[in-house]
Structures are given as C-alpha cells and as structure tokens.
C-alpha cells in the first residue's frame, strides 16, 4: 500500500540552527501539507502546497519556515533558525481527491 | 469561533458501551469531512469519511448536518482497542483539525 514517508524520525538540534524535514508524498497525489503537534496538544496546520506553490499558510508559518518541492518526489520543510518552542512532532500529509494520508512524523527537539 | 470544535472529553467508558462524539465547524464552504484516529505519539489515520447521507462502517456511524454545520461519530459496542484520540477533520482547501477527543475504554 502506498504511504507517505518522512525522514528523519527524530532530530535533535541546537537553538538557532537550521533544520530540514523531509517527506516523500504518495506519488500520484497533488496536495501536500505540513502540520505540527506539540506534545499533548492538537494537530496544527502549517502550510499547504499545490501546483508547485503554497496555497495556504497559517499564522504559525512565519518567515523562518519555508517549503520546497525540489524534485518530483520530495517535499521539504525548512526551519531557518530554530527556537525552543519549535519542538514538536511534524507531520507531512498528501492528498489526492479524497482523504489525506499522513507520514509517521518527525519528532524535532530543539535544545 | 474556532474553525473546528470538538467535545473536549476525555471520555472514559466501559467495554461494550456506546459513545458519541460531536464536532462543529465554522466555514459553511467546507467541502468534505472526516474522522481520524490518533494513537499516542502516532500519526493520525483515517477512520472514516463522512457523507451527507450518513454512513456506517461496522460499529462506527458518522453523520453530517450541513445546515447546523455539525458532524458526529457514534461508536457502538466499544472495545479496549478503540482507546485513542478521535479527530474531526474538515476540508475547505486544507484539512483543518479539531483539538480531538480522547476516548479510554476500560475493561
């Protein structure tokens, strides 16, 4: 069964460092998303991506965040200068015409 | 008003009980609706889509009321394995999540 894959599964980084979270969406999907979930809290929308551009972004997705689809398969989330409060689980999702499928997440720990 | 609001829970029920979760959404242009299940420290996984006519999948029944902007999920004969957080998800152009309702089914 096709699945969304995310790497790494866990990343520890120092405050102020840049991180890139990677995702390989399901191959024939057209809509791509990043969400985050701080431990014990709700799943929060960050950004959606369609037709090689951002279609929607939340207030959380400020200038320190960026997304790219550098080739036909990868979808990346870059956090330019990490803060302690960026520590969370980051989920990538992709969607065709129906429901979204989620990757297993990257746990980001900023120390 | 939040985009998607759910019963805060938690719900603690005995095995075999029937439990119902409610969800309201604010944007009348919302196009599709889903219930996802999330186990602790795992990714959300689709439980079922919600159709206008209502739909059932085994012990699970989902209802949609577009006029009231309301979605429900009914779980009958609950099992220990149903213990999880249930997320109401509404799609406009993006998938927007409710905060989730935690269910614990006890022996």
Which key phrases capture this entry?
heterodimer, A: 111 residues, mainly beta, 7-stranded mixed β-sheet, 4-stranded antiparallel β-sheet, 11 strands, B: 107 residues, 6-stranded mixed β-sheet, 5-stranded antiparallel β-sheet, 0% helix, globular
Characterise this structure.
The complex is a heterodimer of chains A (111) and B (107). Chain A is globular, with a radius of gyration of 13 Å. Chain A has 111 residues and is mostly beta strands. In chain A, the strands form two sheets. In chain A, strands 2, 4, 5, 6, 9, 10 and 11 form a seven-stranded mixed beta sheet that branches. In chain A, strands 1-3-8-7 form a four-stranded antiparallel beta sheet, with no helix packed on it. Chain A contains no helices and eleven strands. In chain A, strand 9 (88-95) and strand 10 (100-102) form a beta hairpin. Chain A has strands at residues 5-7, 10-13, 19-24, 31-37, 44-50, 53-57, 65-68, 75-79, 88-95, 100-102, 106-110. Chain B has strands at residues 4-6, 11-14, 19-25, 32-38, 45-50, 55-57, 60-65, 70-75, 84-91, 95-97, 101-106. Chain B starts with a strand and ends with a strand. Classes of the chains: A mainly beta (111), B mainly beta (107). At the A-B interface, strand 5, strand 9 and strand 10 of A face strand 4, strand 5 and strand 10 of B.
